[in-house]
Structures are given as structure tokens and as C-alpha cells.
Amino acid sequence: MPLQILLAAATLSLSMVALVWTISGSRSEKAPSRFASDTVDLRSIELRKGIGSRAVNPVMRWLSIRARRLTPIGLVESMGHRIHLAGLGERYTLEQALAFKFIIASIGAAGGLFYLLRGAALMGVVIIAVGYFAVDLVLW
Questions:
Q1: Under the phi-then-psi rule, with left for phi > 0, alpha for psi from -120 to 50, and beta for the rest, what region is 119?
Q2: What are the DSSP calls for 48-79, one per residue?
Q3: What is the largest CA-CA distance in the chain?
Q4: Model pTM above 0.70
Q5: What is the DSSP string of 77-93?
């Protein structure tokens, strides 16, 4: 295998590890700068929060809003009920499940479209359906 491909694969793998490490890490308190003043503004308070509350939560909220618009209201209510029955209500919220449903459905749609364009229509339709109902099947 060519060296460039191996280097590109290693770089991509290490970048994913760095991304996960950055998102999951907590922010440490920095030593005060010699230029720091005693006043605290809203920007500095917001920057003290972790990346999860500043970047990941708004993206998940946006995805759950899109998934809620695309999912029939009865399915949304039954998904919330199944999350509660599975005992996952304290660990996962309905918005998180809807965001994951949107992500997995998008991946399923891309994979299904790939198979549809290759001529395997039945496999494409099955992948699209599994992508849409994957979260519901896990909670069932």
C-alpha cells in the first residue's frame, strides 16, 4: 500500500481521536493573566463552559427539532413513552433520541441512495427503512 495512503489514514484516525478528546475533556481553570481585571463579563463566563454545552448541545437541539418536524406526532409520543419504559429516561432525553434518529436516518438515506443508484432497489429501500426506524427498533 502506498505510503501517502497510510499517512492519510493515520492522520484522519488521529484527528478523530483528538476531536473526541477535545469534546469530552473538561476545561481547566487557567492561571490569571497579568492583564486580567477583576471584572467578569458574559463572554468569559460562557467560555468557561465546556465544549459540550457550547457546541454539541445546540447542534443536538437543532437536529431534534428537524427530526420532530419529520416524525409523525404519534411516533414522537410513543418514543418518549418507550424511553421511559426502558428505564432510560434519566440517561437519555427525547430530544437526544430524536437527534440520533435524524443522524441515523440521514446515514440510512445516503446508504440507501447509494444502493438505489447501483441498481439494487430492494436493498436501497431496506437500508432507508432500517435507517429511519433503527432508534425505534432499539427502544422496542
A1: left
A2: HS-HIIIIIHHHHHHHHHHHHHHS-HHHHHHH
A3: 66
A4: no
A5: HHHHHHHHHTT-TTT--
Question: Which three cell numbers, joined as nine digits, stand for 79?
Answer: 418514543
Q: Scanning the structure block, which residue is given the C-alpha cell 445516503? A: 110
Residue 71: which region, alpha, beta or left (left: phi > 0; alpha: psi -120 to 50)? Answer: beta
- Which positions ≥6 away from 126 have C-beta within 8 Å? 112
The DSSP letter of residue 38 is S
Dist CA 63 CA 70 (whole Å): 11
- pLDDT digit string (tens) for the chain, length 140 residues: 677 877 888 888 888 777 777 766 655 555 555 555 566 778 877 777 777 777 878 888 888 888 788 778 887 888 888 888 888 878 888 888 888 888 888 888 888 888 888 888 888 888 888 887 887 777 77
99: enclosing H helix or E strand: helix 94-118
